[in-house]
């Protein structure tokens, strides 16, 4: 099925070149890694992308990274990092809204104000047992649910299939 894609901006994110734009018929934002595009046809049909660019910037400001959020909510997120990991994490840039505080026990509390998406949950998993979701409850539940799903793959020796369980419904 052919669709008209209105390109807005090229994004470089975590070592991958992406193209962002909108599906003309549904006005849906789409961000694709260039390697995901298998077939395309270029046209010379001009369009004014200024309103699309503003919408893209607004939408990206609500996300952790570039992955689509699970819903339209922006959450106050708190993550507690161990002292050693927090010493590293708090010196890096991860999100425009990040803020850190040092806790009495030496650990670090990271505050974020963004949506929840696959990229955030994967990022949390990268820190393994050196991070704990403090809030919101929905993020705690998603991390635990994904952890259980991963364990089940090993316990039942389940064949892997491509799956994005955090894609919005």
Automatic annotation (TrEMBL):
- The WCX domain, residue ranges: 74-150
Q: What protein does this entry describe? A: WYL domain-containing protein
Which species is the source of this protein?
Kaistella carnis
